[in-house]
DNA sequence: GCGGATTTGTTGTATGGATGAACTTATATC
DNA sequence: GATATAAGTTCATCCATACAACAAATCCGC
């Protein structure tokens, strides 16, 4: 996309676009490629692309059985990725956060030594985070409750410089998914993040729909199967979460989820039941928020072909608008650790949305 | 609110605000009140208010047992309101729309004769409307399906001049409710419209959350009570809709809903069960979209004190974020026929959002 | 191989919406 | 009545963008 194309698609003049591009180049947010003499007559256009490895954001994640840090640049490249596998069920928050901060500190210093500007950091957590700064209210599968993550991480000097944005794991993963799907215009979908817990997020035109506190999309806790009375009835997570699935299939909880696909009759029944439960919960979601696409992420990504038909049957039967909606059920397209890269991407997107603020801030810190 | 206050709260200078106010006054969108010598020293401020009876929008509605037309001006006054009661269950679309058009035509000509500018019209329908122009896909309780409302109404010359925006009854009612609640900043809530059907809408910061087609909020069709299997299970509307409620209470369907409040033991049980069903469905809504307030409208407005405790019990038990959310369950505050006035209000809000476009359009039509 | 057509990017000058400071108007207070 | 205070207006200035002309780099036809 050249200056002239930008001008044509935005309605600004080429002169204006040139001036703006000048600033972005100076800020190292974009770069020029070699002009490629096309088939058309006229002076060849200078293609503009996101800059490579000049400005990065750090994405971090603490999840049930791993923690990790990655960096991504404006071009979406991942110059660094560090993962530590461990079991954090019922863990002590302090030491876990210290390990993360340690890892993140190493990554940040490595990058700044290479002259790369670190624009910001983000941390994905499997629970309810109160705004992007607030405490982690509840992370059921870690066993954490009311943890002031930001205050703890600020004790580490490197992270105090770039205090992380906190976000829900599923919400940030959905951002990564939205990025992966944004070819041909922004996407709208419901993202289902299947892990030990089941999270979710609603994306409209490429933007997360967070709600008042940012706690939208908790589809794992939608009530199902009330058995005729309204007093009982389990939630989706208890029926279709990773542990529930493996238990129902008679497999050990340490088994790979892929084992379900040729796990015999019990596994088949477990998958059918999980798909029905997912379909029922998703029918509620789609009656409430009108989107046309369900994206299955986490453990469901690999199971998507197996689950989709039964999910679709529930949706077709129960979603009022189904006859006029081109409902789609798809496997997630974002890579491994989408929450981590999604968080980093959110930071970079904020810069892309308001490059002026970043340029100003950059000059200020240069002046110090 | 004076020019100086506007300047202070927007960050613009008083000079700029004065210039803009000048235009709005010329367009008759706002008016000046008498300066009131306050307690403060200094020149008294000239209060500015929405103009009265100079620019109006027409709100129309076709519902199951009435149709109507009203006009409201920028100040929210209702200079005209015309209602016709009738039963439109399983009606023929054509004649019903003709009756509405007839009524609307009279209202419009009356107003224009008085020198009032009609900014636009809106029509509320109890069903799925495909965008604000598109056909009415489905109105279950009217028995209408795929009706091209706009084309039919355009056959009436007066309405062809001001083609209506089409909208879902619950969505437009929620707009009226948002307007009634916008004191002290925009409101976020889930609106439940209890009628023969149960509609709903999600409002975030005063804006309807429509989704891809504008079909969000169909909570009447959320599935409940699956009896252990996922194949069966009714929807909320069948359990807590007006007809279901009256049937369960052993009352005739023509009875007033208020009769339930002292309808004996059967009515009590029916109300309990409806409240539980509403609570369960709303728990799904609140897990999926994070808002803190549920507004009960339609028939539920009058029943709110009776229903709220049981609804709240369900929400507290089932909404993951309930412990950190100040959940409120309230009766609707908008007046009678909220969908009608909400539609009209939506038209006026569009003008308030972009007064320049209206001023331009006004000058154009004056030039003709 | 060279002039014309074509498209890109840049360099001016012009303009419209907002700013900021000074000014006028209208009140309260001492 | 003098002074302080606040509201609204006037006017010179600024800044981002538009507009127009130009330079640069390619393709095309003869």
Short description:
The structure is a homodimer of 368-residue chains. Chain A folds into 3 domains: 3-50, no CATH class; 55-172 and 337-367, 2-Layer Sandwich (Nucleotidyltransferase, domain 5), CATH 3.30.420; 183-331, ATPase, nucleotide binding domain (Nucleotidyltransferase, domain 5). Helices cover 41% and strands 21% of the residues of chain A.
Write the layout of secondary structure elements.
The structure is a homodimer of 368-residue chains.
Chain A: H1 3-10, H2 14-26, E1 30-32, E2 48-50, E3 55-62, E4 66-73, E5 80-85, H3 93-113, E6 117-125, E7 128-129, E8 136-139, E9 144-147, H4 149-153, H5 157-161, E10 165-168, H6 169-180, E11 189-194, E12 198-204, E13 207-208, H7 236-240, H8 242-249, H9 264-288, E14 293-298, H10 299-318, E15 328-331, H11 338-353, H12 355-367
Parallel strand pairs in A: 3-6, 6-10, 11-14, 14-15
Antiparallel strand pairs in A: 1-2, 3-4, 4-5, 7-8, 8-9, 11-12, 12-13
Helix pairs in contact in A: 1-2, 6-11, 8-9, 9-10, 11-12
The first copy, chain A, binds a DNA duplex (30 and 30 nucleotides) through residues 2-4, 12-19, 35, 37-46.
What does this structure look like?
The structure is a homodimer of 368-residue chains. Chain A has 368 residues and is α/β, with parallel strands linked by helices. Chain A has 3 domains: 3-50, no CATH class; 55-172 and 337-367, 2-Layer Sandwich (Nucleotidyltransferase, domain 5); 183-331, ATPase, nucleotide binding domain (Nucleotidyltransferase, domain 5, 2-Layer Sandwich). Helix content of chain A is 41%, strand content 21%. Chain A contains 12 helices and 15 strands. Chain A has helices at 3-10, 14-26, 93-113, 149-153, 157-161, 169-180, 236-240, 242-249, 264-288, 299-318, 338-353, 355-367, and strands at 30-32, 48-50, 55-62, 66-73, 80-85, 117-125, 128-129, 136-139, 144-147, 165-168, 189-194, 198-204, 207-208, 293-298, 328-331. Chain A has a 5-stranded mixed sheet with strand order 5-4-3-6-10, sandwiched between helices. A 5-stranded mixed sheet of chain A has the order 13-12-11-14-15, with helices on both faces. In chain A, strands 7-8-9 form a 3-stranded antiparallel sheet, with no helix packed on it. The longest helix of chain A has 25 residues, at 264-288. The first copy, chain A, is globular. The mean pLDDT of chain A is 91. At the A-B interface, strand 12 and helix 9 of A face strand 12 and helix 9 of B. Chain A binds a DNA duplex (30 and 30 nucleotides) through residues 2-4, 12-19, 35, 37-46.
């Amino acid at each position: 996309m050249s200056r002239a194309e930008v001008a044509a698609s935005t309605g600004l003049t080429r002169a204006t676009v040139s001036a703006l591009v000048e600033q972005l180049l100076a800020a190292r947010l974009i770069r020029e490629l070699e002009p490629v003499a096309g088939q058309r007559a006229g002076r060849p256009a200078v293609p503009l692309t996101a800059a490579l490895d000049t400005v990065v954001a750090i994405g971090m994640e603490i999840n049930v059985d791993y923690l990790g840090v990655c960096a991504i640049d404006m071009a979406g490249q991942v110059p660094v990725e560090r993962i530590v596998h461990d079991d954090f069920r019922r863990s002590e928050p302090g030491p876990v956060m210290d390990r993360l901060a340690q890892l993140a500190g190493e990554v940040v210093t490595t990058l700044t030594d290479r002259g790369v500007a670190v624009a910001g950091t983000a941390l994905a957590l499997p629970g309810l985070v109160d705004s992007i700064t607030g405490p982690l209210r509840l992370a059921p599968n870690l066993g954490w409750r009311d943890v002031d993550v930001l205050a703890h991480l600020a004790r580490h000097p490197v992270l105090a410089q770039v205090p992380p944005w906190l976000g829900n794991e599923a919400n940030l993963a959905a951002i990564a998914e939205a990025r992966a799907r944004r070819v041909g215009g922004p996407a709208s979908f419901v993202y289902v993040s299947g892990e030990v817990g089941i999270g979710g997020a609603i994306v409209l035109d490429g933007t997360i729909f967070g709600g008042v506190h940012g706690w939208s999309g908790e589809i794992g806790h939608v009530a199902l199967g009330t058995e005729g009375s309204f007093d009982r009835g389990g939630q989706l997570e208890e029926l279709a979460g990773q542990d529930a699935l493996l238990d129902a299939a008679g497999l050990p909880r340490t088994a790979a989820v892929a084992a379900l696909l040729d796990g015999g009759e019990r596994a088949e029944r477990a998958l059918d039941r999980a798909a029905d439960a997912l379909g029922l919960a998703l029918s509620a979601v789609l009656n409430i928020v009108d989107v046309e696409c369900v994206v299955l992420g986490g453990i469901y990504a690999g199971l998507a072909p197996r689950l989709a038909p039964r999910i679709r049957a529930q949706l077709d039967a129960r979603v009022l608008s189904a006859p006029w909606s081109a409902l789609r059920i798809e496997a997630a397209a974002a890579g491994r650790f989408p929450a981590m890269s999604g968080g980093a991407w959110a930071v970079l997107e904020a810069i892309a949305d308001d490059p002026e603020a970043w340029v100003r801030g950059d000059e200020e810190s240069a002046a110090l």
